[in-house]
Amino acid sequence: MGKPTTVVFDVGNVLLRWDPRHLYRRIFDDEEQMEWFLGNVCTPDWNLEQDRGRDWDEAVALLVKDHPTHEPKIRAFHERWDETVSGVFEDHVVLLQRLREAGVPNYCITNFSSPKFALSQERYPFLSGFDGIVVSGDERLLKPDPAIYRLLLDRYGLEAEDCVFIDDSKANVEGARKVGMHAIHCVEPIDLAAELRGYGFPV
């Protein structure tokens, strides 16, 4: 594989600091109870279905039916979703801006609910500046399904070997590599600038 020319970003926990605990620490006084709730009621698997395109009202109704005593806390995941994002990875956003200023093509593949991604674009305008975006909730495909990576490549006329993909999930990184992309597993305390310079990018 030659040197890539294009950078493809994930969003959650690469550019945005996302964790439902940012919200639920404001709701629960007890950390153990919060962890039980997030492990048994508003679970990662439940949330992932919204990333796959399930309607939020439907998702909330399903949980309220099974856990009626937790209804206000369940509804908070939807109604106060913006509080699950505590901010951005400032250094990574700076890198993204440097890539754009240098004319480096930049794209995004993200597992994200469609309406929540639109909300995030309003709050964080840099999310609207990509040369192309694939949102799982729009496509009803989730990383690491090879189809979602190929969708980006086909839609925007990209070659896999020309792209380096950045994601915090090891499974998603491996998924990108399986379709022929370079990939960086982005978990703190990574020096993402050094990783990108290693591929020859001007950051």
UniProtKB/TrEMBL annotation:
<dbReference type="Pfam" id="PF00702">
    <property type="entry name" value="Hydrolase"/>
</dbReference>
<protein>
    <submittedName>
        <fullName>2-haloalkanoic acid dehalogenase</fullName>
    </submittedName>
</protein>
<dbReference type="InterPro" id="IPR006439">
    <property type="entry name" value="HAD-SF_hydro_IA"/>
</dbReference>
<dbReference type="InterPro" id="IPR036412">
    <property type="entry name" value="HAD-like_sf"/>
</dbReference>
<dbReference type="InterPro" id="IPR023214">
    <property type="entry name" value="HAD_sf"/>
</dbReference>
<dbReference type="InterPro" id="IPR023198">
    <property type="entry name" value="PGP-like_dom2"/>
</dbReference>
